[in-house]
TrEMBL record:
The lineage of its organism: Bacteria, Bacillati, Bacillota, Bacilli, Bacillales. Pfam families: HD_5. InterPro entries: HD/PDEase_dom, HD_GYP_dom, HDIG_dom. This is HD-GYP domain-containing protein. PANTHER family: CYCLIC DI-GMP PHOSPHODIESTERASE PA4108, CYCLIC DI-GMP PHOSPHODIESTERASE PA4108-RELATED. It comes from Natronobacillus azotifigens. Residues 113-309 form the HD-GYP domain.
Length: 359
């Protein structure tokens, strides 16, 4: 099956995997041929990628770091907890003590187990799920990316668990931001941006009152927008002043934000998201964290169509371990001419490189 951006879908494309909402209900079943109205609706709802069936890519296996069932459960858990915080209000923190710790710990432990049991690089997480609020899916995606970084850095299980809890709660302060500001589609005023920025401090103050959660969870909320050169917020602290968890979350948070569809811009592809991280490596983001994240993510996910440097077009078939930029590909065109498909292993064809995504 092929992985296609919703912006590149064509009428009549046949879905190879169903489209879910965050309650686990199937909105569009697999094997359906998409109409223009369906394509428009998917784009409106913020779906970034879908899987399309065709004969050439029929045997390509699309790999996900966690099961669809676990992702749905994770989004539902975050949604339930965040809505509870919002309904109880910022000052009523007893709700936090009673309801958060066990749920969050059990959820994070399950995600950690699935990722650690999987020896393949991560595929992008912005696919096949429609959420009624970006905040919930973003929190889960950032948790998955952060745990993958923790594994690559060989953090202990306890530290990985603490990071996971901090990651899943890193944006909790946003539930206390007025919705008209948080979900505004147009350009924010300077005053509105200051309100948005306050979610870091709100999250910190809310979480640090808990006797059940690790204090580091509060610091994850506080520091995920800090940058090495002091240009971040809320305190503008620098390099060694930033906790390692804050540095990990900065990378995971930015990558998911730019590779997800938002009301004000289209999603970037993984390589484009990584280019942003590399452009800020050493200045905004920790170099080692960016490096290990790049090694942990499928830059060119299975099923995506790419252009090669010798004017061939190919579909990514599978990943080569520790060679994220050199997967096995299936050539489908040569100089824009359709050819009988054949596979090419870029780990051995060293003179051939991927130069970008095909449109």
């Amino acid at each position: 099956m092929k992985l296609v951006t919703t912006r590149g879908l064509q009428v009549g494309s046949e879905l190879a995997k169903p489209i879910y909402n965050d309650n686990g209900r199937i909105l569009i079943q697999k094997d359906v041929n998409l109409s223009q109205a369906m394509i428009d609706r998917l784009q409106e709802l913020g779906v970034t990628y879908v899987y399309i069936r065709d004969e050439i890519s029929e045997d390509i296996i699309i790999h996900s770091p966690i099961s669809d069932e676990l992702k749905i459960e994770s989004i539902q858990t975050v949604k339930s907890l965040f809505k509870g915080y919002e309904n109880q209000g910022f000052k009523n923190k007893s709700f936090l003590f009673d309801h958060t710790s066990n749920k969050m710990t059990n959820l994070v432990d399950t995600i950690i187990r699935q990722i650690q049991d999987d020896d393949q690089v991560l595929s992008i997480m912005s696919d096949i799920f429609i959420s009624d609020d970006y905040l919930f899916t973003h929190s889960v995606n950032v948790t998955i990316y952060s745990i993958a970084i923790a594994n690559a850095l060989k953090l202990t299980n306890k530290k990985t668990q603490e990071l996971g809890i901090g990651a899943i709660l890193h944006d909790v302060g946003k539930v206390f931001i007025p919705e008209e500001v948080l979900k505004k589609e147009g350009r924010l005023t300077s005053d509105e941006f200051e309100v948005i920025k306050s979610h870091t401090e709100l999250g910190f103050e809310f979480l640090r009152a808990s006797q059940e959660l690790p204090l580091l969870a509060a610091h994850c909320a506080f520091q995920h927008h800090e940058r090495l050169d002091g240009s971040g917020y809320p305190r503008g602290i620098r390099d060694e002043e930033i906790h390692p968890f804050g540095k990990i979350l900065a990378v995971a948070d930015v990558f998911d934000a730019v590779t997800s569809n938002r009301v004000y811009r289209d999603a970037m592809l993984p390589q484009e998201g990584l280019d942003i991280l590399y452009a800020g490596s050493g200045k905004l983001f920790d170099q080692e964290i960016v490096r290990v994240f790049r090694e942990s993510i499928a830059i060119y996910p299975n099923g995506i169509t790419v252009n090669l440097n010798d004017h061939r077009t190919a579909i990514v078939v599978r990943q080569n371990e520790n060679l994220a930029q050199r997967p096995v590909v299936r050539v489908i065109k040569e100089s824009d001419q359709v050819v009988v498909p054949y596979d090419l292993d870029l780990s051995t064809a060293l003179d051939i490189t991927i130069i970008g995504y095909a449109h």
